[in-house]
Amino acid sequence: MKTPDVLISEVGPRDGLQSVKATMPTADKLRWIDALAVAGLREIEVGSFVPARLLPQMADVAEVVRHALTHPGITVMALAPNLRGAQAAIAAGVHKVTLPVSASPAHSLANVRKTPEAMLDEVRAVVALRNGQAPDVQVEVGLSTAFGCTLQGAVPEDDVIRLGVACAEAGVDEVGLSDTTGMANPAQVRRLFNRLRAELAGKAGAAHMHNTRGLGLANCLAAYDAGVRTFDASLGGLGGCPYAPGASGNVVTEDLVFMFEAMGIRTGVDLNRLMAARAPLQAGLPGEPLYGMTPEAGLPKGWAPAW
């Protein structure tokens, strides 16, 4: 198989599961991650290191990390909202820590109980921890509410870029843009990623899009046109943000992979196996609605992937 052209980062086990009321049993989580690995996904965000009293869905995250690490060739990633979470994530053995830094002060206070400026201090502390204890661990920032906020409304693009530059200067490896609230449009996505890449060059990171208003795939394509090559997505479109009202629906991994493969852009993901990974997800969350046009319609007659 040739080297993939894009990296699909599966965030369902974190972003998806933290957004539903039910808690998936650990055994089902492990089976789901196994199925995602078999499908060819090379980066999986397996959970978040937050207090179990706040997100009981993530109480078993260290065990999930340990299991995910048994799959060779997969980057095991976890979210950490602060230094304490990053310490636990690094101790568990993750390859990559994601820090949520919101460009909207209102969302930042609701989500992590800190201002964006206070989160920058947290980012610096995490980078210092990484540099001192685990230099091989990557640290990335996802700039939440980069395209608008349900609590604040419009988020000035200059604020987003300024915060992204500050995170890069703090020493993180990558800074991506997240459409946490599903408010982005393709023109805005192209413009903001072009600005981010002009400022940060190789440190400009992933596109994390939501399909809240039906523009998830269009926004991913706009990001691709702007040079982005890493895309977050969630199997079955599971997910949202518990602190962003109405922000349902991550981009559906199955639909995103189909779009790229149909265009001749290699993802390295086997679509049939990817759709089969819905079975352990549904078994672990019975009754939870899953989305996706590709699984519903099936693959076209004579379908051949880009790889």
The strand order across the widest sheet is: 1-2-3-4-5-6-7-8
Helix/strand-derived class?
alpha/beta
- Give the biggest beta sheet: 8 strands, parallel, barrel
Low-confidence stretches: none
Task: Walk me through what this model shows.
Helix 4 (83-92) packs parallel to helix 6 (116-133). The protein is of the alpha/beta class and 307 residues long. The longest helix is centred in the middle third of the chain and has 18 residues, at 116-133. It contains 13 helices and eight strands. An eight-stranded parallel beta barrel has the order 1-2-3-4-5-6-7-8, surrounded by eight helices. It starts with 6 loop residues before the first strand and ends in a 10-residue tail after the last helix.
Output the keywords.
eight-stranded parallel barrel, 307 residues, alpha/beta, 14% strand, 13 helices
SSE topology:
Elements lengths: L6 E4 L1 H5 L9 H13 L4 E6 L12 H8 L6 E5 L3 H10 L3 E7 L2 H8 L3 H18 L4 E7 L12 H13 L4 E5 L7 H15 L3 E5 L7 H10 L4 E4 L19 H10 L8 H6 L1 H7 L8 H5 L10
Parallel strand pairs: 1-2, 1-8, 2-3, 3-4, 4-5, 5-6, 6-7, 7-8
Summarize the structure.
By secondary structure, the protein is an alpha/beta fold. The chain contains 13 helices and 8 strands.
